[in-house]
Specification:
144 residues; alpha/beta; two-stranded antiparallel sheet; 19% strand; globular
Length: 144
């Protein structure tokens, strides 16, 4: 991507289940191959910013230190996922322009279903792919 000809995106990456066992910066807390490859892909995009979508904390900066936790949107009720999305959108509004910024959403359906429709310019390159197919797609993009 030539950053001179294109706006640099804001990349949103969902959290994952596999975590360190001690408090860590968010970018180091999540240790699954999927998360590491999503981070690698995000960096290839030369983003304006990378933020993590945490089921417990909402929107996280990469260097925010957090403790390991067990919470996922996968088993949350629709109402709770909508409330979580509202909180994330409120956090994004404080730091981004939801109408003009470009977003790349690297997240499963439960994380993206109520976020994506509220972002004017959003790309979801792995939308609809199973975890195995996401890993394959990321490997292809990152030339692994």
């Amino acid at each position: 991507m030539n950053s001179k000809n294109k706006k640099r995106p804001i990349v949103l990456i969902s959290c994952v289940k596999s975590k360190q066992t001690v408090p860590s910066e968010a970018q180091e807390l999540y240790i699954s191959p999927l998360f590491k490859k999503m981070m690698r892909y995000a960096l290839l995009l030369e983003p304006k910013e990378i933020l993590i979508l945490s089921a417990l904390h909402g929107l996280l900066d990469l260097d925010t230190v957090i403790s390991p936790y067990e919470k996922t949107l996968s088993n949350m009720k629709v109402k709770d996922r909508k409330e979580w999305s509202d909180e994330v959108i409120a956090s994004l509004e404080e730091r981004c322009d939801l109408q003009n910024d470009d977003f790349v959403l690297l997240a499963g359906r439960k994380y993206s279903e109520f976020l994506a429709p509220r972002l004017a310019h959003v790309t979801q390159p792995m939308d609809g792919l199973s975890q195995g197919r996401r890993l394959k797609w990321l490997n292809e993009q990152c030339h692994v």
